[in-house]
């Protein structure tokens, strides 16, 4: 292993430890708050933490061993068809969950009068099956079909044209499309929350705690969009450059370093939620971790919108 590979391997394992601890902690904390807020919101956060955890566990250890034995693929023909598609599925599930979180938050803040039926068991099952099955259909299956194990190596068997088309396709469904939806939903939500703040005298019930929660939501939305956009961009750029340069090895280093940003995003997601969601932060787990627990309870307040007055959860 050269200097760059040693650096990326070391950083990857540091990120691995942080990500596992952070996402496991988030999963435990969410169990204590399932009945205290929006069921769909809690379940989506749980799914995001699970997908991030699955992604780093299925990626970092395998990538480390693979690079030790490079250019040979040490896991055999069966895992050649499974490892990369599984990693892609987990990563896309996390991305699609983030998109769903943004859409759910948009409807709760911008259109609170609409019945989203988010508490129905059937709706929850369909939502989460879709979040895991769509990545399989859209990316994992085509990738598994294209992968070939020959002469001890595992590589995609696309022609140059199909390889370029598939790379652009993945960039659209993994990054450009989701980022557009996330930015639009969160942008609308931010505008609505700012409007609530500016015209709070028109609301029936309002207090400093609710306004602070609003501001936390605004900061969290901006942070989520920024982290996703920044940390996933190097990886998408690296794959496009590497593909269109016909596998020029000079760009391999860029790809290896860019993976650190993708892994880091999985480690940062639980941190973002813990920082900006005081209602969910650690809960009963806080006693074990010696963190002060927020004893505030779920409250309801009524907001005035263009379509009338509606109930809105303050812990959106």
TrEMBL record:
Gene3D superfamilies: Rhodopsin 7-helix transmembrane proteins
UniProt superkingdom: Eukaryota
Membrane topology according to the record: Multi-pass membrane protein
Keywords from the UniProt entry: G-protein coupled receptor, Membrane, Receptor, Transducer, Transmembrane, Transmembrane helix
PROSITE patterns: G_PROTEIN_RECEP_F1_2
Entry keyword Membrane: yes
A single cellular component GO annotation: plasma membrane
InterPro entries: GPCR_Rhodpsn (IPR000276), GPCR_Rhodpsn_7TM (IPR017452)
Primary location class: membrane
Compartments where found: Membrane
GO MF annotation terms: G protein-coupled receptor activity
Name listed for the protein in its UniProt record: Neuropeptide FF receptor 2-like
């Amino acid at each position: 292993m050269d200097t760059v590979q040693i650096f990326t391997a070391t950083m990857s394992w540091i990120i691995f430890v942080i990500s596992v601890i952070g996402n496991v902690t988030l999963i435990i904390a969410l169990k204590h708050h399932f009945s205290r807020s929006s069921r769909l919101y809690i379940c989506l956060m749980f799914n995001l933490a699970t997908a991030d955890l699955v992604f780093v566990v299925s990626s970092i250890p395998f990538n480390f061993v693979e690079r030790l034995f490079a250019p040979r693929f040490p896991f055999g023909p069966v895992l050649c068809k499974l490892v990369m598609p599984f990693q892609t599925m987990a990563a896309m599930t996390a991305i699609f969950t983030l998109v769903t979180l943004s859409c759910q938050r948009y409807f709760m803040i911008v259109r609170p009068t609409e019945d989203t039926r988010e508490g129905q068991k059937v709706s929850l099952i369909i939502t989460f099956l879709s979040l895991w099955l769509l990545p399989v259909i859209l990316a994992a299956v085509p990738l598994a079909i294209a992968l070939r194990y020959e002469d001890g190596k595992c590589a995609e068997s696309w022609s140059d044209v199909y390889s370029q088309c598939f790379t652009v396709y993945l960039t659209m469904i993994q990054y450009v499309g989701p980022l557009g939806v996330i930015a639009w939903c969160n942008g609308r939500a931010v505008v609505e929350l700012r409007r609530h703040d500016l015209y709070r005298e028109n609301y029936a019930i309002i207090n400093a705690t609710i306004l602070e929660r609003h501001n936390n939501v605004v900061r969290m939305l901006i942070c989520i969009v920024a982290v996703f956009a920044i940390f996933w961009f190097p990886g998408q750029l690296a794959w496009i450059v590497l593909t269109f340069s016909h596998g020029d090895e000079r760009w391999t280093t860029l790809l290896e370093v860019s993976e650190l940003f993708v892994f880091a995003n999985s480690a940062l997601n639980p941190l973002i939620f813990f920082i900006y969601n005081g209602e969910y932060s650690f809960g009963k787990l806080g006693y074990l971790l010696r963190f002060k627990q927020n004893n505030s309870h779920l409250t309801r307040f009524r907001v005035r919108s263009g379509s009338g007055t509606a109930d809105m959860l303050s812990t959106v």
